[in-house]
Amino acid sequence: MNRVLLLLVMINIIFTLTISNIFLFNLTFPAIKIILMQRKERNIKEKALRFNEYKPNV
Questions:
Q1: How far apart are alpha carbons 41 and 46 in whole angstroms?
Q2: In this predicted structure, which of 8-17, 21-30, 37-46 has the lowest mean pLDDT?
C-alpha cells in the first residue's frame, strides 16, 4: 500500500513538472526568438557598415 502511494506521488510530481516546463517554454520561447532576431538584425547592420567602408576602396 505504501509503495503504491509513493508511486502515485512520484507520477504526480513528474506530471506537474512536465506541464509547468511546457508552460514556461511557451512563455520564454517568443522572448528567445525576439533576442535571436535582434542579434541577426545587428549582424546585418554591421555587415552593411563594413560593406560601405570597403566600397570607396574599390
A1: 9
A2: 21-30
- Please spell the DSSP secondary structure of 6-58, one letter per residue: HHHHHHHHHHHHHHHHHHHHHHHHHHHHHHHHHHHHHHHHHHHHHHHHHGGG-
The amino acid present at 33, given as its one-letter code, is K
Residue whose C-alpha is closest to residue 18's, from 30, 26, 29: 26
Which pLDDT does position 54 carry in this prediction?
Answer: 61
List the grid coordinates of 30. 517568443
User: Which tops the pLDDT comparison, 35 or 58?
Assistant: 35
Judged against a pLDDT cut of 80, whether residue 51 lies above it is answered with no
Q: Which three cell numbers stand for residue 4?
A: 503504491
